[in-house]
Amino acid sequence: MTAVADRRATPSTMVEAAIAALGTVVDPELDEPITDLNFVRSILVDDEGITVHLRLPTSFCSPNFAYLMASDAQDALQQLDDAGLVRVMLDDHHDSDKINAGLAAEAGYLGTFGVEADEGLDDLRATFVRKAHTAAMERCVSDLLARHEVTPDEIGHLTLRDLPPGPKKSALLRRRANVGLSLCPNSLVLVGDDGQPVSPDDAGMRLRFARSVRISMEGNGHFCRGLLATRYADDADCDGRSGPVITDLRTHRSAS
What we know:
alpha/beta, GMP Synthetase, Chain A, domain 3, 2 domains, two-stranded antiparallel sheet, 7 helices, 43% helix
């Protein structure tokens, strides 16, 4: 549910654009948009710019995950035409002050955490991009097995053209692109973490591993939703099951 707190003058399309931009930001561990997870607490759009408040299931969520999502949100909003000044702030986290100051200064992860940061976020992001691909791959193959359209002995030979069109295939193609894998219809679906095809003899084991990754991600997603709902159950403005509170004060539309 999305709550509209205030809406004046002509409704701006900037609100819709901001929501869409934030929808492209995912929790790296869960591979779900932060908008679907209700991590976006509020969006304020006025003639000066856009201000977004984020929240997480606990105050001790990993600081690198928290920073990554907040900085991705800031990047996504700054790409909008006529966005103006973009402010993204993380609420109720033990490192909120540090993260918010780093975002405001656009200091980057290393600049924000200094000696506390062992390394940048590139390796972390790459790890979860691979996991997201692995889970998407499993969903496609298991779906065909459940519908008896393929046998366990055949899964090692599945190609992208064998997958029926639909959300699962579209999700897999997006994640293959993210990890740099070919989208050629003749490409094999089951691949290892290195992107190389697995032998037919190892296909079953690869699928079981992929299933464990997918179940882990989905389980963590349910767990995080429950924690968020409990943590913010008493929030009168935006409880843990609600979408962002939106305040639209913009009085002009973009000239574009």
